[in-house]
Amino acid sequence: MTTFYNSLVVNFKLLTYDLNSVKVDTSLFTNISNSFITFDSNLIQDLNRNAVVSNNSGLQAYSFYGDFVRPNLISFTLDLDSNYLTLNFDETVNVNSLSISQITIQSLNNSGDVWMLQEGSLPLYSAPFLDINSTVVVIELGFLDLNAIKLLTNLAVSSKTTFLYVTSQLITDMNYNYVNPINTTQALPVSSFTPDRYSPVLQNFDLDLDSEILTLQFSEVVNASSLICHEFSFSYAPSFPTNSISLYNCSTQVINDYIIYIDLGLDFLNEIKLDTSIATSRSNTFMHFPNYVVTDMNRNFVTEILVNRSLQVRNFTQDSTPPTLLRFDLDLDTGSFILYFSESMDASYVDPTQLFISSASILSNTSSSYQLTDGVVQSQDSHVINFNLTKNDLDAIKLIRDLATSTTDTYLIFNINNNTTPFAVDMNLNPIGAGSGLPVYNFTEDTTLPDIIYTHLDYNTAMLTFLFTEPVDVTTLQINNNNTNFFDQSTSTSSPPLYSLADGSSNSSNGLIISISLSPLDSNQLNFIWRYGYYPTHLYLPELIRDMNGNLITQLYNGSNITRLIDQFIPDGVNPSVISYNIDLNTGLLAVTFSELVRDILPVHFILLNNNQSYNLLTSSLLTGPVIQGPGHPPEVTIHLSTMDLDEIKALDQLAISNTTTFLSVSNQSARDTAGNLITPISLLPPLIYIPDSTNPHLVSFTFNLNNGLLALTFDESISAYSLQYTQISFQSSFQAPVAIYTLQFPNNSQVSFDGTTKLFITISENDLNEIKIISVLFTEVSNSFIFLTQSSIQDTFSNPLNTSNLPIIVTQFTPDVTRPSLDNFDLDMDTNTLTLYLSESVDTSTLDVSNITLQSYYFTNTLNNTHQQYTLQSSTTTSPNGPTIVLTLGYTDMNEIKKLTLIATRPDNTFLSLRAQTVSDMSGLQINPITNGEGQPVRIFVPDSTNPSLVEFQFDFDIGLLQLTFDETIDISSFDPTKITFYNPNYTYTLQQGDLSNVTQDSTSLAFYLEKFDLDNLKIRSTLLSVNSTTDLRLDMGTVLDLSYSQLPSNLDVRTSITFVADTTNPRLTSFTADSNTSLLYLNFDEPVDFSLFNINEITLQSSANISYGSNYTLTGGVLNNYTNGLMTVLEITEEDLNVIKQLTDLFTCENNLYISVTADLVTDIRFNKVDPILQTSALPATSPICDDTRPRLRLFYLDMDADLFTLVFSETMNVSSINYTSFTLQAMSETTPGDLKSYRLTSGSASPLNSPTVILYFNTNDLNMIKSLRIAESTVTSWLVMDETAIQDMSDHLVVPLLNGVSAHQTDLYTIDRTNPVFLSFDLDMDSGIISITFSETVNPSTLNPSEIAIQQSSNITTPTSPVALTGASSLTTDYTTIINIQISSYVVDKIKLRVDLATSNLTTFITVSAATISDMQYNSLVPVYDDNATQVTRFTADTTLPTLLSFSLDMDGSQLNLTFSEAVNASSFDPTLITFMHLPYYMYQLTDAFYDELNGKILTMYLVDLDLNLFKKNGH
Considering the entire predicted model, what is its pTM? Predict the structure, then answer.
């Protein structure tokens, strides 16, 4: 590229193609000594058009600067079909420096699966279209690398998973500069990716019947998980065998590789071994399978091997391995023994007597084992041998407790003596070796239920004997728990049994026979049942015992769920006797123990006695018996002594007072055993256990009389009255969680009486009685009258303390109080405002009604007499508890009303009291005795008022400004001065400045007046004053007001309590507003102070008319309050965003009376949080004298996005996009350009974003964009400048924009986005006459980057036939300008190659094109979007070849009768007619051929062979 400046020095830049071509030749331009140029006179002219002097000898360079720029890898392609990796560099590189191991392929641009190419992969130098040193390096991937890449399932499976990074050691350029490395975190994406589409091929297979492995070797890595084993078939011949065996029962390791190992299953191996026609040697081992049996990593099916072309095994290994016992199964239920061998076995050789069943893997002294004695083999020759254990062997195994009970103690050992005869042999008589400790594989435990064969019962020996069908486990014997049931006949087990054994034992060992020793009780009970006519001849034994494996005895007998027959039993004949007895005087129980079970017990034959006294039981009865205490214990009978018997015994002072004074005598008539044998008589038998009386007495009931205080207590046994503890008695209001409890405290005045039995009478003291009456929830009714005595409150005659477990108990009967209370006297204290009443008894203060109490000026008062006054209480209260004294606090109203009456309660002699019966009631609800007028009771003690008045509270109504002051007494309203009142809190104080007494109202103790508006507004401005009741105090200075006694308030009296506050509820109003568009300010005026800290700007809506339904409107989104104070006016600074949106609205705020405001109630509140009155959008408030926009807009920011084909302009305000003049915008490569230097370009048209906004987006049209790119403008931030006329655009007020001037104020882009969009191939034209192809792209491309060899012509859009496309190798570009259309001259060689194809480029229907990403780049070197051969682009305009071919030359070989014709282009051999050829020897001879033989091959040279007739005629004529 040359410059455009006339000068002595002319600079031009070599084209990339030329530069790379120079670099290829290392003898040129490597230093100054080999840097020469030659040129002719057409090189250049001077300014007078004189041609330069040519130089053919070579002009040496004046200075030389070598290539020190490191090459860059700019793109790469990967073809897994052809195994080619193609690297494209930005300059010629030295292939000899290539280090393939510096290349790593990865699945992501920054990580993922990776593979580094290995040494040994060789560059491909044989490609005819590549120089050895070039910008393109083609690498043929080696077998190792190719398979390693395919093994990684996330790597190189598509263009999105194919990235490459290299180190600097990969390669150098021709000047030995190392390539720039590509980091793994910024890996280069593939520009063209061709997946693997070739089917894998099974190359060989090996079959090893010894190791049981089938080995498959494929041409490439296959996906092991896709392998279908059962689709492989073996046969004895390579084609059409009569039988074959399909592979089954196989497994493979899921490891992807080109070699796959399949483990052959036992079943398949045994089947193939049994068929002697297949796989006995290499000669009869062949394999075939369908194509879907396995796929490669790209899911290409394997090449099918047909049954008529079966593949012979490569290596075959015959079976020579001795058989082994793989596993064995043992079924102890059926006695079945199954042996599984590694191969088929000869069943006739199997010898069970050589088998040992062991509990461990080896025989030892610590393990159990058993050698079989016999066994019958049940199966034929097979790899599975089955035989049955004998009954003796089976029982013997079961009896060994730790042998063959589960899989953990069942092992098989054989051939331990190394006998010459093996335990078993295979079908080839290979003997099996010794086996040690083979664990059982499938173990079936014994689940058969044991059964009883014979039963025998012997009463003489008390022995029950069973004979079982199999050995049983005596440790599981369960005699009791209804497991041994006796019936009187063979019957259904659903009927109740006669008797079930309760106990028993056995000394038998595990085996078939078990004997049980019956307990005495069981033996006696069975005798009893027999004596009463029932015959226990059958048994039902549901869970009596289990076999050695825990199987419960069967419940079936002869196949049914019925009882079993007992063979024999012998009855009992021994007399019973008394062994011992126990007596418990605490419970009254006499427990007698007999030697056996007894019946017919008569307690009247039992006598307690000693040497001095005796007692024959009279009314006692049998409580329980006979019962069993436990295993080995005799029967026991319990006799319950009656109350009379027990009391009589306790009354005897010498009998049964200890174990030495207690003996028992029984006659032979007292009882008999179950067999009817009478008891043996006894006398003077001492007790085994003697228990004296230790029972604590209980309080059974009580009564209480509130009139005389008599308390009567009743106990459950005799007690000692002398043991009573008076103060241990308590009364309570409920059984649980009582509200009230009272414990007796005054025993001195009480009285106690005793009736000598169980009753005790107590008269409680008067003090205790009165205290009880005070408790209002105690002894008012039965439900709240309970008593509680402590354990030490009283004792029985045996000094046992009281049992309190049943306490408290409720009263059985009580008498309530019926006495009325009365007033004894009263005191009145006017200084402390208290009235004290003294009553005759305790009263319920909750019943007090002060409105029944009247103060009088005399004992009798007449209201008609002016000298008499009286006052009935209204507001007085008391806090006194229930009792005889009540202290009343005179209420505020009562106190002031009494003080207003000057004739009452000013001294003792004018203070009397009367009351009605309803005044108060006692604790029983009885009303007080009344005191009537005329019987007025005089005060006992009187204290006059001597306290100055004080302020009690103040109330303030902030809404209307009303202040009300309340004092503790009547004040003089004429003395009131409001300017001495101060509101204050820790933050603010305010003293009233004005006061209008005409507004003051009054009553006896309070005054109220209205604040002036000046004071009220000042209070509102101080937001924390009077905001809530507890935050503001009121201070009244001395002299604010006087009472009626002319006593003034103390100085600076602060009141902090009892403040009543009525909040301000009046809403503020927005009264007026104005706005300034230039300063963005909005002025708002309110009728009262508002709290701008709560200002919500987004509640303001600006409208173009009073009614929002007409015209535009906008609601503000933000802003800043400039005078942020609480007052009547604020200034709001509108945000630039809001102002720009407002300016977009052409009918709003344009100084044409079109600015109104509406606000919601949420805009702001006053100090008391009252919301502003809303201004409705249908009646908006008009602005007062608004100031409109008069400022020209300016450009602030310029963003250029060459990838999105647009540029963005950000202005100082909203712009009118309809005013855009595209021709007023100029893009240039620098801040200042000169006319004609081709560094600037003025737009011709375009489009813009439709909305008026400060941000305007302009879109380039295609022509402008391509022109900008062709002028090399806007290729980076450095070359991106904007110049703009003032007519380029206007704001919403039609103000012209401030211009950007060339060389003065040109604006460089603030943000530049480079073009990253790949150019797109749009269309192409092909002229077969001229050999020119014209290609149109989506954008300007750089012709210097054209690589025609990446372009190919094919016959259809998607190649489905074996024909291949034709690449434009050797073509050259006819276009040198930067443009969107590139014209290419196809080489004659390629043109002829195309013409040779009758199916290619003969019309637009057979002309399609494909291009790779490396075909060409745009101006930012973005590679072309490829067009693949499965979606090729059809030609747009096709010009067929219309040039007639020309015969250029011919040759004739008379010896070989061969004639060669050479044409100017390829011809169609099928159209050749040899009879149209005439040989001439002018003017004498011409001869036309009659026929010929020729090769029907299209091409530029046509070869034919003359027939004998024509050849002979030639030879004959001699011409």
Answer: 0.37
